[in-house]
Specification:
This protein has about 350 residues and is α+β, with helices and mostly antiparallel strands. It has 10 helices and 12 strands. It is globular.
């Protein structure tokens, strides 16, 4: 996020550790619902950085990240509904409320949600602004669902953009870019500074930052989707979801993942889905499946099916069916054989 006027910052160390001591807490479900809603409304205008005619940015960002980061040019940047997310203006010290109102009204030059950067149309010619917001996409990958509360904690905890750690990191690289010195892969530098080891590649979909949560949270999130209508390739509760959408929304609502998607594959096969799942958890023996695990079934014509295990003895799951929508029922009711189970927990 960039404030109007491009506030200057001074360099400070410990980007990942320099957040405020008092961490702002934001409920995960409403935050992700708002993010999904905002990204869905602007999806038709979203374009990868790689398709824009940048003069210099391609020398400063790796090709994989240019394809991963996306930009939406808007007349007005979406406001962050802080009150809706549980952060009341009255809870903010009086001298910080102008900053609160600025974010709520979208009075900023840029805003990044996950891998999508919203750029104010009047600033779309500023290539350094795109680099600044690109830094935030790497930070999103590092912090996952904790990015927004971490960002706000740093901003409100330090009182201004000058001391906000995540903004300081973005401004530092923006200044290097603006100085027209020797180019370097900014996304890789940011990742190194944050201690992140894994980057998305063109061969495999972006790797999520999985967060360990209790199985009960995954089960509750899956059951909250029971009754949702079925729609092939659907990712939205209002219009319908398929089994892939069920897993995506369950993990997002449970707060254990920022992004897990295999949309680059128009019709992902069993092998491709197995690879994606294996990159985000630990495969467990089929005789050791337990509540909270993701199960993969071998469908016809190499079309896989997915479900979320919700109970044992008998083994039950939530999954999306074509004729009944999302239901919870015994695993044995599924005519397809289970071929893989994935545990997201650190210790089984």
């Amino acid at each position: 996020m960039v404030s109007p006027g491009g506030i200057q910052v001074r360099q400070s160390g410990g980007f990942a550790q320099g957040v405020a001591q008092r961490q702002i807490e934001i409920p995960v479900a409403p935050m992700l619902d708002w993010i999904d809603e905002t990204l869905r409304c602007h999806r038709w205008r979203s374009r990868p950085f790689s398709v824009r005619s940048f003069r210099r940015l391609s020398n400063w960002v790796s090709p994989a990240w240019l394809n991963h980061a996306r930009a939406v040019i808007v007349d007005c940047v979406p406001g962050v509904p802080l009150a809706r997310l549980g952060l009341a203006e009255q809870a903010i010290p009086a001298h910080l409320r102008p900053v609160y109102r600025m974010f709520a009204a979208g009075q900023v030059r840029g805003l990044t949600l996950m891998n999508t950067c919203f750029i104010r149309r009047s600033d779309a010619g500023d290539e350094s602004l795109f680099l600044h917001e690109m830094v935030h996409t790497v930070q999103w990958e590092y912090y996952g669902v904790s990015f927004l509360p971490t960002y706000l904690s740093g901003l409100f905890g330090h009182g201004n953009f000058h001391e906000s750690p995540l903004e300081a990191q973005a401004y530092l690289h923006q200044r290097c870019f603006a100085a027209r010195g020797h180019s370097y892969a900014v996304d890789e530098a940011v990742r190194s500074e944050l201690g992140l080891l894994h980057a998305p590649t063109e061969a495999v979909v972006p790797r999520a930052l999985m967060r360990v949560v209790p199985p009960e949270d995954i089960i509750a999130a899956a059951r909250s989707l029971v009754g949702t209508p079925y729609r092939h390739s659907g990712r939205d509760v209002a219009s319908g979801i398929d089994c892939g959408g069920l897993v995506l929304l369950t993990l997002r609502r449970a707060g254990c993942v920022e992004q897990l998607d295999w949309r680059p594959f128009p019709y992902p096969g069993v092998g491709e889905v197995r690879d994606v799942l294996s990159a985000h958890g630990s495969e467990v023996p089929l005789n050791d499946v337990s509540a909270g695990d993701i199960c993969l079934f071998e469908g016809s014509r190499d079309r896989p099916h997915l479900g979320i295990i919700t109970g044992a003895e008998p083994l039950t799951m939530v999954h999306a069916t074509r004729d009944r929508g999302v239901v919870e029922e015994p695993v044995g009711a599924c005519p397809m054989p289970m071929i893989m189970a994935l545990c997201l927990q650190a210790n089984k």
